[in-house]
UniProtKB/TrEMBL annotation:
Protein name as annotated: Aminotransferase
Similarity comment: family membership: Belongs to the class-I pyridoxal-phosphate-dependent aminotransferase family.
NCBIfam families: PRK07568.1
Lineage: Bacteria, Bacillati, Bacillota, Clostridia, Eubacteriales
E.C. number(s) listed in UniProt: 2.6.1.-
């Protein structure tokens, strides 16, 4: 018996694959600062559980395949805050942004189709593309340039007759790069000229700092038919385990195709949708508070990381990740050292080696990503442990 070629081609998540080694370090008595995964420590707003507690049905029935209307309506009102106008038929509820992306790829990609992907990128796109038989084509970016990719030259250089879509994660994971509305317009013009879909992964939409405006491809009416927005409650509302997200699009054909897949998987858990509806109705002040909290964490982590000799990093403008380049040949080997040999006062740190965030072989070996999902004190300590660990690694 043999497994499918598809699954044989897939990789394990570079974010999760070192977990057993970190677990062993903990069993050996070390404290490990987890800067490897985007799991915030911020409390999920109480309205999530309150809404679930007051849900009083005798039967937890299947929901509509496109989602419950209470949640769709809450999402419609949420987008209105930013001047975007959607109807229920434009919103499909999914099990997190992950299912939104899987279903989107399955709906628009044929075997061998190419999808433009600025690299480094959220590593699970490898899985989404492989599942659908698509090929990710990199738009390579650099730490020295703040991982900037939104130029006509860079994007058009990799477009071929097989290109079907461009994926834009903004604010970006793992780079923290935030697209301006002008950059989105430029990408929109390119997409129009080459007849491409835009997969706009905006799960970090509000995480934009230093006075940057919240931007969305949904603000551009002229390309509304080719924009597919992916959204999620995971990060914005610190509700990763709720597994609720959505796809938002004004392209009726696309939404009809998506519905065939959605009906095949029946529905998203009803109770989680009830909680998510309450989250989407939080007032604008919630986003301001959250932004301030994360901005403080970014500053703390960035300041400490910049103390590492040889570090290359431009201060990221959004999301909750920082990717840096260090004078290290093999980041996975350095991480193994941190988890198995190094400690400072019984403590060590874990990050995500960036190689798995690239398509181009060999790139990212000297880069790492941290998620600033812990409080400022822990972020400083985590970044300090990377610096101290690097000193010890170099003197090994
Ligand atoms: C850019 C991006 N898109 C999508 C997801 C998927 O998130 P979820 O399925 O929890 O909504 C993540 C999770 O880290 C992400 O970083």
């Amino acid at each position: 018996m043999e497994l499918s070629k598809r699954v044989q081609e897939m990789q394990f998540s570079p974010i999760r694959k070192f977990n057993p080694i970190a677990q062993k370090a903990k069993e050996d008595g070390k404290k490990v600062y987890h800067l490897n995964i985007g799991q915030p420590d911020v409390e999920t707003p109480a309205c999530f559980m309150e809404a679930i507690r007051s849900f009083d049905e005798k039967v937890i029935a299947y929901a509509e395949s496109g989602g419950i209307t209470v949640l769709q309506d809450a999402i419609i009102d949420y987008f209105k805050m930013y001047g975007m106008d959607y109807k229920r038929e434009n919103i499909m509820i999914t099990s997190g942004g992950s299912e939104a992306l899987t279903m989107t790829f399955l709906s628009i990609i044929n075997e061998g189709d190419e999808i433009l992907m600025p690299e480094p990128f959220y590593t699970n796109y490898h899985t989404f593309a492989t599942e659908a038989g698509g090929k990710l084509v990199p738009i390579t970016t650099k730490a020295e340039e703040g991982y900037h990719y939104a130029t006509k030259e860079k994007i058009e250089a990799v477009i071929t007759p097989k290109t079907k879509a461009i994926c834009c994660i903004s604010p970006g994971n793992p780079t923290g790069n935030v697209l301006t509305l002008d950059e989105m317009k430029l990408i929109g013009e390119i997409a129009k000229e080459h007849d491409l879909y835009i997969i706009a992964d905006e799960v970090y939409r509000e995480f934009a700092y230093d006075g940057r405006k919240v931007t969305s491809f949904g603000m551009l009416d002229e390309i509304a038919d080719r924009v597919i927005i992916v959204d999620s409650v995971s990060k914005r509302f610190s509700a990763c385990g709720a597994r609720v997200g959505c796809v938002v699009s004004k392209n009726a054909d696309f939404m009809e195709g998506m519905m065939k897949i959605a009906q095949g998987r029946l529905c998203v858990p009803t109770v989680d949708q009830i909680g998510a509806a309450a989250l989407y109705r939080l007032p604008a002040s919630y986003y301001d508070e959250m932004r301030e909290e994360y901005c403080g964490r970014r500053d703390a982590a960035y300041e400490e990381l910049m103390k590492i000799p040889g570090v290359i990093c431009q201060k990221p403008g959004g999301s909750f990740y920082i990717t840096v380049k260090l004078p290290v040949d093999d980041m996975e080997d350095f991480l193994m050292f941190l988890l198995t040999e190094f400690e400072d006062n019984g403590e060590t740190v874990m990050f995500a080696p960036a190689e798995g965030f690239y398509i181009t072989p060999g790139l990212g070996k000297d880069e790492l990503r941290i998620a600033y999902v812990l409080n400022q004190k822990d972020m400083r300590r985590g970044a300090e442990l990377i610096r101290l660990g690097l000193e010890a690694y170099k003197n090994k």
